[in-house]
Structures are given as C-alpha cells and as structure tokens.
Amino acid sequence: MRLGRVASPDGVAFVSVEGDGDATVVREIAEHPFGTPTFTGRSWPLADVRLLAPILASKVICIGKNYAAHAEEMGGPAPADPVIFMKPNTSIVGPNAPIILPPSSSQVDYEGELAIVIGRPCKDVPAAKAHEVILGYTVANDVTARDQQRHDGQWTRSKGYDTFCPLGPWIETSLDPSDLEIVTELDGQIRQRSRTSLLLHDIPKLIEWVTTVMTLLPGDVILTGTPEGIGPMQAGQNLSVTIEGIGTLTNPVAAKR
Ligand code: MG
After folding, report:
1. Which of 216, 239, 214 lies closest to 226, judged by CA?
2. Do residues 129 and 245 share a domain?
C-alpha cells in the first residue's frame, strides 16, 4: 500500500494512493494510517489534491556516512558503528514544497536518502524483530548547509533549518528495501546513483542501534544515509530523488524572501 497525506478540498487527511498515471486516486483513511487503516469512503483524483509530507514525525533520526563511497568523498573512512544525529520535525516539508536557502549559508547541498517510517512505539528492538516496527519506506533529502556543518563541528544548525527535510511522495508499505536503486537529479542531471545494498549498516541494524538509545514513536523517521555524489543546489533549480519501488520526491530550490 502507498500511504500519503494530502490537502483535499475537504481538509487534510491521510490517504492510500491507488492506481497509476492519470488514473491515480487517493482514498481517505479515517484518523491515522497505523495498524490496519479504515477508510471513510471519500476519494479524489490525485490531480485534485496536494500531496503533503506523508507522515507527522515526533523526530527525524539521521545516519551519517552509511555508504563507503560517501564517507570517502567526505574525507575519511566510514566509522565502525552507525553515527546518528537528528533533524527537528519542523524541517520536514512535502513534495513540491520549496527548499529555502538560508542567507547565512553559501553552500547548501542535497543528500538523497532512503527513509524508514516507524509504525509503533518501540524501544530496544533486536535486529531480527526490526520488521515488526516498520510502517514502510519513503524518499528523503537530508539537506545540509555544508559550510556551517564544517564550521560548527556539530550538525544541528547545518541540518536543522526549516524545509531541510523534504519527505515523500508517499510511504510504500510493501517493499523489500535491501537492494533498491537510488538516483538524485539536479535539473534533470544525474548527480547520485547507487543502491541500498551498499548501506554499510543495514536497516535491521539501524533500528536496533537507534532503539538502544531512544524510544521511537509511530511516524518517526530514520534517514539511512546518502551515497556519493553530494553537491550544492542553487535557487531556481529543481532537485529530485527517485527510489526504485517508491517513487520520486521533487522540490524546487528557492532563496529566502
Ligand atoms: Mg545525510
């Protein structure tokens, strides 16, 4: 199932996204998409609604340097254990929402990433049971003010600006994430192309590692790390991240006004 969240003529709702191309419709889910969703009976053509970020997260956990080739381009070997950091949930935006470049940064980079969406409250989840706590997977862009990341020595400012966590277009709940192609395009030019099979720490390990530290709540998101090929975006450009089996997340880049 593809789970999304939309602004419809009747308000904001979680939906299932069904069909393809011009025939795609969204069916309204009653209340929330966790567990077994129930439907209200209302539906709209996808063209008549606006896709929002597909989930409301209490927190966004990110994994750093989880592809060897990206660790190398950042100037060092990948660490033995997963590196985790966080983005505030106020950094989340949906498909087609602009990424706003802060005037205080001279280099804002894209980082295309596979994102895990958590389906139920959990703590201390062994890797073998990680699948039980996952709602599904979506596409993310871990937008980063690279100059500030280098300057600050820790990453909260550089990763935390409003609009620095595009998510979407929806959550795919029936997906084997172990070997999916991930492609990032800037104005239609391919800048990143890799496969999730190259993740240094796989998804079950990441769930175990993160839940050793903190309780995860339904809707929480884990960004699994970016492959090589990161680079800057300029105002007026369009950034798209496509993950096989999920879809394409596209966001325009804009200067702050
Ligand atoms: Mg990242």
Report:
1. 239
2. yes
Distance 62 CA to ligand 1 centre (A): 6
Does residue 133 sit in the same domain as residue 248? yes
Question: Looking at 15, 33, 52, which one is the last position of a domain?
Answer: 52
Q: How far apart are CA 255 and CA 257, in angstroms?
A: 6
CA of 224 to the centre of ligand 1 (A): 7
Is the entire prediction scored with pTM above 0.90? yes
| Tens digit of each residue's pLDDT (9 = 90 or more) over 170-192 | 999 999 999 999 999 999 999 99
Structural domain of 46: 2-52
**Using CB atoms within 10 A of its CB, is residue 14 exposed (0-12), middle (13-18) or buried (19+)?**
buried
Residues 203 and 78 in one domain: yes
Residues 87 and 105 in one domain: yes
Distance 76 CA to ligand 1 centre (A): 15
What's the total number of domains in the chain?
2
Backbone φ/ψ region at 210: left (φ over 0), alpha (ψ -120 to 50), beta: alpha
| Contact (CB, 8 A) for 211 and 120 | no
- How many CB atoms are closer than 10 A to CB 7? 13
Nearest partner of 238 among 249, 229, 247, 227, judged by Cα: 249
